[in-house]
TrEMBL record:
<dbReference type="InterPro" id="IPR011527">
    <property type="entry name" value="ABC1_TM_dom"/>
</dbReference>
<dbReference type="GO" id="GO:0016887">
    <property type="term" value="F:ATP hydrolysis activity"/>
</dbReference>
<keyword id="KW-0547">Nucleotide-binding</keyword>
<keyword id="KW-0472">Membrane</keyword>
<keyword id="KW-0812">Transmembrane</keyword>
<feature type="transmembrane region" description="Helical">
    <location>
        <begin position="278"/>
        <end position="299"/>
    </location>
</feature>
<keyword id="KW-0813">Transport</keyword>
<dbReference type="GO" id="GO:0005524">
    <property type="term" value="F:ATP binding"/>
</dbReference>
<dbReference type="Pfam" id="PF00664">
    <property type="entry name" value="ABC_membrane"/>
</dbReference>
<dbReference type="InterPro" id="IPR036640">
    <property type="entry name" value="ABC1_TM_sf"/>
</dbReference>
<keyword id="KW-0067">ATP-binding</keyword>
<protein>
    <submittedName>
        <fullName>ABC transporter ATP-binding protein</fullName>
    </submittedName>
</protein>
<keyword id="KW-1003">Cell membrane</keyword>
<dbReference type="Pfam" id="PF00005">
    <property type="entry name" value="ABC_tran"/>
</dbReference>
<feature type="transmembrane region" description="Helical">
    <location>
        <begin position="56"/>
        <end position="81"/>
    </location>
</feature>
<feature type="domain" description="ABC transporter">
    <location>
        <begin position="333"/>
        <end position="569"/>
    </location>
</feature>
<keyword id="KW-1133">Transmembrane helix</keyword>
């Protein structure tokens, strides 16, 4: 951490140089009032105080206090301003990193943990480079200046004797260092787990209630909070111990100093003014030592947070490096004997996948639940490392060769779980293409069969949909997501079971619209309802990760396999529904 901080400080030499300069000046100035007091008392004791030099003493006293005030303001503001800038820089950096990491990374880290890294960990880092830096510069320079001035203006013997307990303090801190580090990390991880629990509770509160699990969850949460409390208590004990040891030893230092200076006065080696000044210096030194004891705690907290942020910044998602090939149209997609295994699984999920899809065609992907349909889509989206067994080619080139952002820009993806932002309906749709005009917006909404729904909403497109779209229906969420993909006019549209929550009539209308507006573009429709792919050019039947059948819907019906049986069952269900 210190190395990284040092590099950051070197990148901002003016700011940190100014802060250090004014901190040192301020520490020096802080000693002046005390020097004046010492002179003042000695003048009284010697009977040398005149109204003239009293005026001078008071003026210097006042001026030095004003100067301390101004220098303190300058350096504290400079330093803390920079620490806030550091925090926002770190937030931007980590956010960018998170945006670039893909699925395998997000499978390793939990949301609560990432939130803790983005919030309190970055706050602690800012505190360390701001407040921590301030503690070091001010207290170290202060302690050194006090010791020097004590030696010069009072008694070097008394100063040396008084400083001895401080050496002991340094040794105790050194012994406790590792233990405190472990405690901070432990405490921080428990808080991160707690954040995760809260996030899951907020997401799942309705299910918890529906299953009558409120009490059980409450008890579980209480246990977690008790664990956090226990960890925090351990920390409090150590933090408190360090502070109390600092107090005890500074008290000891004062006692030794006073006893010894009493002895020096009896020997005529010290004046009363020097004794009083010495006592004030000792008080100031205690302040500096308490400040230094705070550094231990700020540093440890910062160090733990630094490790967490660094781990995130260094994280790899094990995906291959981005390709350099640019792409402005998807004309042909080819899977050749492609196999895929999830990094966490022991068996292959996709087996010998082989098919070709040309521009303008619609591909249907159907099959039993858990057979591997979504996994197949994920390969095109490059959410996982491309397998080395078999190939995926786009326009005749390996998919890995393309610049991912360019490729993603040509795809409109509607995932199974709809991800909506807690903004307006309009914002969520426009997210697909910020530059779309009103006509394009209306077209996308119409094609997603969403126009009537919007006309029924109180604020139309300006209607707020709540967090994750909580205030609109499942079917509406799906259509907002479809409109968002359509407004993009993507070369490749992928609907991954995206019509499961709409009725058969609405599904028919959306599929017809897509066929009409996307004649020269490519579509992949993953579905459980065969009616959605009845007019596809080609349909893949996936079974246990392999293509069990493929062909046009008519060919598949003729071959009387799984597609035929499923088609007949679904037709009967439709008839039964119509009779109700
Ligand atoms: N991230 C993952 N890590 C490990 N295994 C996974 C992961 N995602 C899916 N699987 C496994 O891969 C297999 C195929 O899952 P996939 O989601 O592709 O099926 P699917 O055909 O789309 O299912 P459904 O129709 O229910 O959506 C399943 O056995 C599933 O448990």
């Amino acid at each position: 951490m210190l190395k990284t901080f040092w590099q950051y400080i070197k990148q901002h030499p003016v700011i940190y140089g100014l802060a250090t300069f004014f901190a040192i000046v301020s520490s020096g100035l802080t000693l002046i009032p005390n020097l004046i007091i010492q002179r003042f008392i000695d003048a009284i004791v010697d009977g040398a105080l005149t109204s003239e030099n009293l005026g001078i003493i008071l003026s210097i006293f006042l001026i030095s206090i004003i100067c301390i005030f101004i220098t303190d303001i300058i350096w504290v503001m400079t330093l803390f301003g920079q620490s806030y800038r550091y925090q926002s820089e770190m937030r931007r950096k980590t956010y960018k990193k998170l945006l670039n990491l893909r699925t395998p990374f997000y499978e390793r880290f939990r949301s609560g943990d990432l939130m803790t890294r983005m919030t309190s960990d970055i706050d602690y880092l800012g505190d360390t480079i701001g407040y921590g830096f301030m503690l070091i510069v001010s207290n170290v320079t202060w302690a050194i200046s006090i010791l020097i001035i004590m030696i010069i203006t009072t008694s070097w013997k008394a100063a040396t004797v008084s400083a001895l307990p401080l050496v002991l303090f340094g040794y105790i801190v050194y012994r406790l260092w590792k233990k405190i580090d472990v405690l901070y990390e432990d405490n921080r991880d428990t808080v991160a787990k707690l954040s995760n629990e809260v996030l899951e509770m907020v997401d799942g509160v309705r299910v918890m209630r529906a299953y009558g699990k409120k009490k059980l969850e409450q008890t579980r949460f209480e246990k977690r909070t008790a664990a956090v409390l226990k960890k925090a208590n351990n920390l409090v004990v150590y933090n408190g111990a360090i502070n109390q040891i600092a107090k005890l030893l500074t008290g000891l230092s004062t006692a030794i100093g006073l006893t010894y200076s009493g002895y020096l006065i009896s020997q005529g080696q010290m004046t009363i003014g020097q004794l009083i000044a010495f006592q004030i210096y000792l008080g100031m030194l205690s302040g500096a030592i308490w400040g230094l004891s705070d550094i231990v705690l700020v540093y440890q907290q910062g160090n733990v947070s630094f490790r967490k942020i660094d781990e995130l910044l260094q994280a790899e998602d094990q995906l291959e490096k981005n390709g350099e090939e640019t792409i402005d149209a998807i004309n042909d997609i080819q899977f050749n004997q492609y196999m895929f295994q999830y990094p966490t699984n022991e068996t292959t999920t996709l087996k010998q996948i082989e098919f070709e899809l040309k521009r303008g065609e619609t591909l249907g992907i159907v099959g039993k639940t858990g057979s591997g349909k979504t996994t197949l889509i994920r390969q095109l989206l490059r959410q996982y490392p491309v397998s080395e067994t078999g190939t995926i080619k786009i326009n005749g080139r390996f998919i890995q060769e393309y610049d991912m952002e360019k490729l993603e820009g040509l795809i409109g993806y509607v995932p199974q779980e709809h991800i909506l932002f807690s903004k307006t309906v309009g914002h969520n749709i426009r997210f697909g293409n910020r530059h779309a005009d009103e006509i394009e917006m209306a077209e996308a909404i119409e094609s997603a069969n969403f126009t009537t729904d919007i006309s029924h909403m109180a604020d139309g497109l300006e209607t707020l949909i709540g967090e994750k779209g909580v205030s609109i229906s499942g079917g509406q969420k799906q259509r907002v997501s479809i409109a968002r993909a359509l407004i993009r006019k993507p070369d490749l549209l992928i609907l991954d079971d995206s019509l499961s929550a709409v009725d058969a009539k609405t599904e028919r209308a959306i599929i017809d619209n897509i066929r009409t507006i996307r004649q020269d573009k490519t579509n992949i429709i993953v579905t459980h309802r065969l009616s959605a792919v009845a007019e596809a050019d080609k349909v893949l039947i996936i079974d246990d990760g392999a293509i069990a059948e493929q062909g046009s819907p008519q060919e598949l019906l003729r071959s009387k396999g799984w597609y035929y049986t499923q088609y007949m069952t679904q037709q009967m269900e439709v008839k039964e529904d119509d009779n109700i």
